[in-house]
C-alpha cells in the first residue's frame, strides 16, 4: 500500500501506464514509462506550493540527470487558474526547450472521450487527491510523440484533444513552421486512421520502439488518469 505520493505514482505507473492497453492495440498507455523508471530517470517532489516548486525545478532541470520531474501537491489550486498558469508558463519555457503538463483532479477523461485513460481496475491507496506538474524537455516529448504517431497511437484521441495536446505543443517547439505544416500533419493522421495495418508488422514496430527508443517520456501520451474513473488532468 502506498504511503506517499511517490509510492502512489510508482504503483499507478506499474499497474496502469506500463501494461498493454486494449484500446491502443496492445501499446501501454505510456510506452516510455517503464524504461524511465528502470533507468532511475524519474524524480518526484512533494510540495505545498505547486507553482513555486515547478518554477524552481524548471530552473534546475537542465543540470540534473532526470528525464521527468514531477511536482505534486495536496494543496490543489482552482482548475481554470491552474490550466491557465501552465499554458502561460509553456509559452515562456519553450525558449528553454522545456514543457510542463498539469494534472488536476477535476479534469474529466470520461467527458473528453478518452476511454483508454480511465478504464482500469487499479485504485489509489492515497486517500486525498493531489495535483501534479510534469516537467520534461520539449524537443524530447515532441520527438517521442512523432514516433507514437507512426504507430497510430493517437487514433483513439478525439480530434480536439489531439490538436490541444500534440499539435499545440509542436507549434510551441517549431513556431510558424509547425502551423504552416499543420494541414499536412492532419491529413497524414487521417490517412493512417483510415488504412488497415498488418498486425504482425504493427507488433514488431511497437516492440522495437519500446525496447530501443532512447527518448522516453510521459507527456507524449497526453493526459492520463490516476484513479479509476476519477477526473484528472
What topology does this entry show?
Elements: H1 5-17, H2 33-38, E1 42-46, H3 50-61, E2 68-73, H4 79-93, E3 98-103, H5 115-118, E4 131-137, H6 138-150, H7 159-174, H8 176-180, H9 182-194, H10 199-212
Parallel strand pairs: 1-2
Antiparallel strand pairs: 2-4, 3-4
Notes on the structure:
The protein is of the alpha+beta class and 233 residues long. It has one domain. The protein is 48% helix and 10% strand. The chain has 10 helices and 4 strands. A 4-stranded mixed sheet has the order 1-2-4-3. Strand 1 (42-46), helix 3 and strand 2 (68-73) form a beta-alpha-beta unit. The radius of gyration is 17 Å and the shape is globular. The two termini are 23 Å apart.
Order of helices and strands: HHEHEHEHEHHHHH
SSE-based structural type: alpha+beta
Number of domains: 1
Give the terminus-to-terminus CA distance.
Answer: 23 Å
Largest sheet: 4 strands, mixed
Report strand %.
Answer: 5-15%
What is the count of helical runs? 10
Helix content: 40-55%
The total beta strand count reads: 4
Q: What's the overall average pLDDT, rounded?
A: 77
Radius of gyration, rounded? 17 Å
Give the spatial strand order of the biggest sheet.
Answer: 1-2-4-3
Instruction: Point out poorly predicted stretches.
Output: 176-184, 191-216, 227-233
Outline: globular
Amino acid at each position: 500500500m502506498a504511503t506517499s505520493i511517490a509510492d502512489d505514482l510508482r504503483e499507478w505507473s506499474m499497474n496502469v501506464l506500463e501494461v498493454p492497453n486494449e484500446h491502443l492495440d496492445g501499446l501501454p498507455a505510456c510506452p516510455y514509462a517503464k524504461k524511465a523508471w528502470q533507468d532511475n530517470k524519474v524524480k518526484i517532489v512533494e510540495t505545498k506550493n505547486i507553482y513555486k516548486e515547478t518554477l524552481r525545478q524548471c530552473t534546475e532541470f537542465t543540470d540534473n540527470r532526470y528525464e521527468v520531474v514531477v511536482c505534486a501537491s495536496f494543496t490543489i489550486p482552482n482548475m481554470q487558474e491552474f490550466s491557465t498558469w501552465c499554458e502561460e508558463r509553456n509559452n515562456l519555457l519553450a525558449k528553454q526547450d522545456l514543457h510542463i503538463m498539469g494534472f488536476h483532479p477535476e479534469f474529466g477523461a470520461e467527458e473528453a472521450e478518452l476511454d483508454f485513460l480511465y478504464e482500469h481496475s487499479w485504485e489509489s491507496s492515497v486517500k486525498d487527491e493531489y495535483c501534479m506538474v510534469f516537467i520534461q524537455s520539449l524537443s524530447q516529448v515532441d520527438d517521442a510523440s512523432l514516433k507514437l504517431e507512426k504507430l497510430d497511437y493517437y487514433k483513439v484521441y478525439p480530434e480536439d484533444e489531439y490538436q490541444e495536446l500534440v499539435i499545440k505543443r509542436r507549434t510551441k517547439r517549431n513556431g510558424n513552421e509547425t502551423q504552416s505544416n499543420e494541414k499536412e500533419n492532419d491529413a497524414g493522421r487521417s490517412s493512417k486512421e483510415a488504412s488497415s495495418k498488418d498486425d504482425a508488422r504493427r507488433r514488431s514496430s511497437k516492440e522495437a520502439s519500446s525496447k530501443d527508443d532512447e527518448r522516453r517520456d510521459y507527456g507524449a501520451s497526453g493526459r492520463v488518469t490516476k484513479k479509476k474513473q476519477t477526473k484528472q488532468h
